[in-house]
Amino acid sequence: MFAVTATSFDAENPLAGLTLGEVSEPEVPDGWALVTLRAAALNHHDIWSLKGVGLRPELLPMILGCDGAGIDADGNEVIIHAVIADPDAGDGDETLDPRRSLLSERFPGTLAERIAVPRRNLIPKPASLTFEQAACLPTSWLTAYRMLFTRAALRPGDTVLVQGAGGGVSTAAIALARAAGLRVWATSRSEEKRARATELGAHATFAPDERLPEKVDAVVETVGRATWASSVRAVRPGGVVVVSGATTGDDPSADLTQVFFLQRSVIGSTMGTRGELQR
């Protein structure tokens, strides 16, 4: 079958390790299911994999891709939950399983004609969604959902600042937050991306270091070092910064005085559970 694989790592030129071609058909262990992909989505995770982040050299070649939707062997239209983990770990939260992985890290990913996944990772595709729409949900959109509503526990009327409006998680967060009745602010260095954020539902947009009209209840932080200081200072006393990425670097100044003196919370968030995706 045809697939897109990582065959080598290159931190400076990640696409140098990208290979397109024929690979062996997937094996289907007991308790797993074979899915014929109808659509798959690209994520920045694929670039990290090609750079050698989160993927061990001895597992190469590895089929890339975390997101996908397709048809199982029984003819059911399904969405694939990308987190491979023990469903009983973490009191039922499989994202807390220390041995968890995403598709394309230990097990072949979705950028192929067919894939084998644990049967419990299949979720019925709503008839209202196309395969292309459904394939976008399991990574960026699920991550954004968990950040907003599980980890930050935001409610209608709360104000959220989304940093780096051009990213996949940020884009999803803007749309989901607006649909849920939140007041949504977004930042980007790019005027074009700020305009796009407005189209997606942001009530107001700002340059990254621009002074905000008031403090916010929560910040969706995926950028890292470049926006960290402004994220911490943007939150009201008792508010929360929810972090799911660090694209520009993971070692900013902690700014601890701003955290403890104003009782701000910093919360990590990774992917989401099967139950959250099913919602």
Structure description:
It is a single chain. The chain has eight helices and 16 strands. Strand 14, helix 6 and strand 15 (235-243) form a beta-alpha-beta unit. By secondary structure, it is of the alpha/beta class. The radius of gyration is 19 Å and the shape is globular. It has helices spanning 44-51, 131-135, 137-151, 168-179, 191-200, 228-234, 256-260, 274-278; strands at 2-6, 18-22, 32-41, 62-63, 67-72, 77-80, 83-84, 101-102, 114-118, 122-124, 159-162, 183-187, 204-206, 216-221, 235-243, 265-268. Helices cover 24% and strands 27% of the residues. The protein has a six-stranded parallel sheet, sandwiched between helices. A five-stranded antiparallel sheet has the order 9-3-5-6-10. The chain has two domains: 2-135, Alpha-Beta Complex (Quinone Oxidoreductase, Chain A, domain 1); 140-277, NAD(P)-binding Rossmann-like Domain (Rossmann fold). The model has no long low-confidence stretch (mean pLDDT 96).
Short descriptors:
2 domains, alpha/beta, globular, 6-stranded parallel beta sheet, Rossmann fold, 16 strands, Quinone Oxidoreductase, Chain A, domain 1, 5-stranded antiparallel beta sheet, 279 residues
CATH fourth-tier homologous superfamily of the largest domain:
NAD(P)-binding Rossmann-like Domain
Strand order of the largest sheet: 13-12-11-14-15-16
Q: At the third CATH level, what is the topology name of the largest domain?
A: Rossmann fold
What is the radius of gyration computed over CA atoms, rounded to a whole number of angstroms? Answer: 19 Å
Average pLDDT number: 96
**Element-by-element helix/strand order:** EEEHEEEEEEEHHEHEHEEHEHEH
CA distance, first residue to last residue: 33 Å
CATH architecture of the largest domain: 3-Layer(aba) Sandwich
How much strand content do the residues show? 25-35%
What is the number of domains? 2
Question: How many beta strands in the DSSP annotation?
Answer: 16
> Mind describing the biggest β-sheet?
6 strands, parallel
Estimated helix fraction: 10-25%
CATH class bucket of the largest domain: Alpha Beta
Low-confidence stretches: none
Q: What structural class is derived from the secondary structure elements?
A: alpha/beta
